[in-house]
Specification:
CATH class: Alpha Beta
Radius of gyration: 16 Å
Oligomer: single chain
CATH topology: Chalcone isomerase
Helix content: 10-25%
Number of strands: 8
Shape: globular
Strand content: 25-35%
Largest sheet: 8 strands, antiparallel
CATH architecture: 3-Layer(bba) Sandwich
Number of helices: 5
Structural class: alpha+beta
Order of helices and strands: HEEEHEEEEHEHH
Distance between the termini: 38 Å
Length: 175
Amino acid sequence: MRIVTWLLLVGCGGSQPPTKKQPTDAESVFGPLEVGADYATYTKLTDKPFLSLDHGNRWVDVYVNSIGLAAYDSSAPIPVGTIVVKTSVLDEDGAPGTVVGPLYVMEKRAAGYAPAEDDWWYALHWANPPAEDAVKFGGPIYWRGTSARVDYCANCHTDYDRSLGGLIPSSVLKR
């Protein structure tokens, strides 16, 4: 029960106990962002950031690449190669702050990559976490792919409709 509670807290933006050492699996070692680094060239779906409790109570903006843009708001299947990026800033007294938070990335991969997650690949990349978070998480963060550290992404996103990995229609984002 304790593990389930801890996983739920981590998965839905809660705090995680301090780590004493960096993870050693290849998909949890920090490095340059491999997917979605060019998100500034994508279509921004949000007029303004919205507070996302599921992303650590951070303010997020959503971007989608051209491959998935047409399908994003339709009932069409999301094509392989679709990339969705959420940028984030930390909350400061109920408003977007100035401290940059992690980038959250989803990529629709070919059938067979992760059948239980409808073949979505997930990543969390935080190059410059505040000192407190750097200590808590073991330094800069890049959790991705098959790393157990991003299981919470799949767990939350597979609860959404249409097997879309939890994509929020842009009509909802632009309120």
